[in-house]
Known about the structure:
By secondary structure, the chain is an alpha+beta fold. It has helices spanning 45-50, 66-73, 122-126, 130-133; strands at residues 4-9, 20-21, 24-27, 31-32, 60-64, 87-90, 102-105, 109-116, 135-137, 143-145, 149-155, 157-159, 165-168.
Amino acid sequence: MPSKVIAVHSSxxxxxxxxxxxxxxxxxxxxxxxxxxxxxxxxxxxxxxKNPNQPNLRQVHLIHSELFDELRDQGFDVTPGMMGENxxxxxxxxxxxxAGARLRIGDEAVVEVTGLRNPCSQLDGLIPGLMxxxxxxxxxGEIVRKTGVMSIVVSGGQVRPGDSVSIELPIGVHQPxxxx
Length: 180
C-alpha cells in the first residue's frame, strides 16, 4: 500500500485536539494556515515563555495512524486529530526517519522533519494514562516517543486526505530524531 495522508487537522486556537478538515494549506516557512502554531518563530506556549525568538521547528505535526491501532489494542480510543496533529499518515514509520528527511505530500507540499514531538501531560486530560501509553523504552533503556514528528514547510501547497506521501532521505550520515 502506498504511503498517504488519511486526515488533516487545524485549529486557530490553542487546543489539544484539532478538528478534521477537507484540506489544509501549508505555507513555506510558516506552517499550517489558520493554525495556532503558524509562524516563523515558535508558537507553542511553553516554548514561547522560554524564548519567543527561537525558530519555529514545529510548524507541522505528523502522526502515523498505526499509533492509533496500537493504542486501541491497549484500550485507548484515540482517533485522528485528538493528539493535536495536523497530518495523519498511513504506511510511514515517521519516528524512524532521520532528521532532515523530506516528505512530499500531494502535488506541491514538502515538509522537512525537524524532530520528535515530545508528548505532554495534556494527553492525560484527554484519556487518563494516555501519556504513559505513548512512551516506551528501547533495548538500551532510552525513552521512545511515539507521538509523531514535527516539521517545517519547505514548499507550500494544499494537503488533503488521500494525498500520496513520498520520502526523500538526506544525503550523508543520517542523524536520529531528537525531541524538538
